[in-house]
Amino acid sequence: LLSPSYRGDEELVSEILQSKDKEACLHASDALGNTPLHLASFNGHIGVVRLLLAHGADANRQNGELDTPIYMAVLANSIECVVALAEKRVQFNCQNVEGFSP
Questions:
Q1: Is the pLDDT of residue 89 over 90?
Q2: In a 3-state reduction of DSSP, which class is residue 8?
Q3: DSSP string, 54-97
Q4: CA atoms within 13 A on the CB side of 66
Q5: How confident is the model at residue 51 (pLDDT cuts 50, 70, 90)?
Q6: C-alpha span between 90 and 102 (Å, rounded)
Q7: Residues 31, 5: Cα–Cα separation, whole Å
Q8: Residue 39 clears pLDDT 90, i.e. is over it
Q9: Tell me, what DSSP letter sits at residue 31?
Q10: d(Cα 49, Cα 84) in Å, to the nearest integer?
């Protein structure tokens, strides 16, 4: 799920989310601690972000640098992703390792 989320492959993400391994895939992370939601948010893939959120992805999960998906969306200047994540009542005041917050 990490790679198709990074690429914005909505069709493949949707397929994976229908599988029995959905939960493990939703919470998987890369070497930096980024989940599929972090990767889709950072790359501005709003369709994938919505799919992941609809299937229960944790919008407040922090990666190894303590960045949240909404912080990644802000970095990418992806307003649509920021709005979609904000609708999930994310924490705006959490800080990453550098002391920055969304």
A1: no
A2: coil
A3: HTT--TT---TT---HHHHHHHTT-HHHHHHHHTTT--SS---T
A4: 12
A5: very high
A6: 10
A7: 15
A8: yes
A9: T
A10: 8
Per the CB < 8 A criterion, the answer to whether 35 and 29 are in contact is yes
**Interatomic CA distance for residues 27 and 60, integer angstroms:** 12
Look up residue 49 and give its two tokens: 């972000």
Q: Is 52 left (phi over 0), alpha (psi -120 to 50) or beta?
A: alpha
CA atoms within 13 A on the CB side of 36: 33
CB burial string 44-83: b at 16+ within 10 A, e below = bbbbbbbbbbebebbbebbbeebbbbbbbbbeeebeebbe
Q: What pLDDT is stored for residue 74 in this prediction?
A: 96
pLDDT at 61: 96
Percent residues over pLDDT 70 in the chain = 100
Is the separation of the CB atoms in 35 and 1 below 8 Å? no
2-86 folds as: 1.25.40
